[in-house]
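Posted in: Protein Modeling Q&A

I'm a second-year student putting together a small comparison for a lab meeting, and my supervisor asked me to include a predicted structure for Yip1 domain-containing protein. I've never done this before, so apologies if this is the wrong subforum. The sequence is pasted below exactly as I got it from our records. If anyone can share the structure token output, I'd also love a short note on what stands out.
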Amino acid sequence: MFYIKTNKFNMKLQLSLLQDMVTRPKYAFTQIASQNLSSWPAFILIILTMQLFYALYFNQVDMPWLVDYTVNTSLGQATPAEKQQLSQRLTEETIRLSASIGSVLMLVFYGLITSVYLNVITKLDEQNTDGFKDWFGFYWWVQIPAVFQLLLSSIVVLVTDSSQTPLMDLQITSINQILGLTPEDKFYSFAASFDLFSLWSIVLLFYGLSVRTQLKTSTITNICIIPFIFMLAFSLVFG
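Accepted answer (user: helix_wrangler)
Welcome! Here is the predicted structure, written out as tokens:
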């Protein structure tokens, strides 16, 4: 559940879960369920690593260049006058806030959507009594790979020599490193954001559902694949 139970909080156990998420994810989710562990540590860890990454990035990036890059990629084929108008409104502070705060809000929004989806779809298991709050807490454990992805991206920021690197290019494990799509391509946002750590989250979702429900393996697999298909469709329509 997404609340703190001080009598259940065990720092050593919480830290060991990070290792278990890599080596034995099913055991990790069994521990979370049996110990009724709070998801607050996972949530806080994700947010802190996210803010660390943005702090490092904005400390290094050439902000005037980033403003111009954001304007050009956002407006695409717009006229120079339209781009100039946006450039005047799009300040460096606006970009900082929209990235550091907007990304947190977007992550929470995805968590809400995913929780609603899991709350509905897991009703296929008549014995499962988890509600929306339970799945909202569960979501943050599934997102633990984001911590490792953000730390890796932070290392890339520290070792790169260029001060003119787009955010998306820092995800060196994304499938766009293979596809080489540009911001003008429909699937660019999906390809640039979906990486090995996203696959890891899908694996964690699978094992987590196998622990919390009595659903068949094939059903759980389909539950995990549907959001992936939705993201592809969203990129096709709005990309």
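A couple of things worth pointing out for your meeting: The chain has 13 helices and no strands. The longest helix spans residues 217-238.
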